[in-house]
Amino acid sequence: MTSRLYYTESYRTTFDAQVMSCDAVGETVHVVLDQTAFYPTSGGQPFDTGTLGGAAVGDVIDREDGEIAHVINGGRSGHSSGAGHPFRGAVFKPGDVVQGAIDWARRFDHMQQHTGQHVLSAAFDRLFGARTESFHMGTTGATIDLGREVTPSQIAKAEDEANRIVWEDRPVTVRFASAEEAAAMPLRKESARGGPLRLIDVEDFDLSACGGTHVARTGGIGIIAVGGWEKFRAGTRVEFLCGRRALGRFRHWRDSLSAVQKHLSVAPHEMAAAIERMQDDSKGLQRNLRGMQEKLAVQEAAALVARGSREGGRIVIAEAIDGWDAQGLKAMAVAAAAAEPAAAIALFTTNTPALVVIARGANGGIDAGAVLKALTAKFGGKGGGKPDLAQGGGLNAAAAQLIAEARSLLR
Predict the structure, then answer these.
(1) Strands of the 206-209 sheet, one edge to the other
(2) What Å distances lie between residue 339 and 312, 314, 318, 343, 354, CA to CA?
(3) What is the pTM of this model?
């Protein structure tokens, strides 16, 4: 088994180790060492990155047999790492002594998030009996899934309590205990693992079995900020950010709000009301525009019918209309079909991909849905409708090509 230095030395960034094996796995090399400071993906925390003998470590795998494999891309086992090898230093022989170096920025970020999770989970548990069922750490945020629903007020209180512990800068210690010893301890969550357990102790606040890396004092977390929450299964999923991630999110929100404030010319606390007023104004304008379009559509429909070509017993109308949206095209097509019972109509927008409305008058003699299906089969897109009216979008062709095909289908 690989000796895990990160169990007791989370702040260690370099180490020397002896190579136990080095094997090719596809386009990668898996290197097993007698000891390592690289953390493998486990318990919701992603793996460490860094270098091993100068070669980039792209993944770290915790094997079932207790060995930890360090994955190096591009090398081939059994070949020397001579000057001509593109991955110099990436291939080792058993018995070689190599130096590993941890990407400290990534490691410390994970330490902040993971320790912050312990504190936040303990706050929810202590205050509201809301147990953490699972934890996941992504690249920009982290989440805990609580076993029951919590209210926004409760989330704020748990956030305040968690930050109280952070700012008191309490010690975070690591200790080991047998399963029997741990059973008599006040663990926040009973461990399903047997054998010796590694315990993370946040002084007088949380005691949990965990194999991850953590800061030495809660002050190292920096801050615990809840970014959002949502209902998840029978409980609540809470997104949170600690330390530098919280700072990064704050900067993103600050820049976004500053840009919005510049366009609205209002104070930050007035933004919500200003946006609501703009939305109301926009809805009013859209209603007025829709009414004007409907009136204009009747007049435009008459012009369409006048320009239509007689093909046998029907009037074929196929045009691309500039400046009209789907609702406007629909109103125009319906008006033309009502004005001319023999009309067979296909109206497109001029942009690409195009929107389309197919319609027929009472004696138009076409199946609008079938025409639309034929158009989308040839030009892509999707849509649907009935024999007298169908509409769709996403047709990827020039207007002239769409009109020519439509005329052929409408005849």
Answers:
(1) 172-177, 197-202, 206-209
(2) 18, 13, 16, 9, 25
(3) 0.71
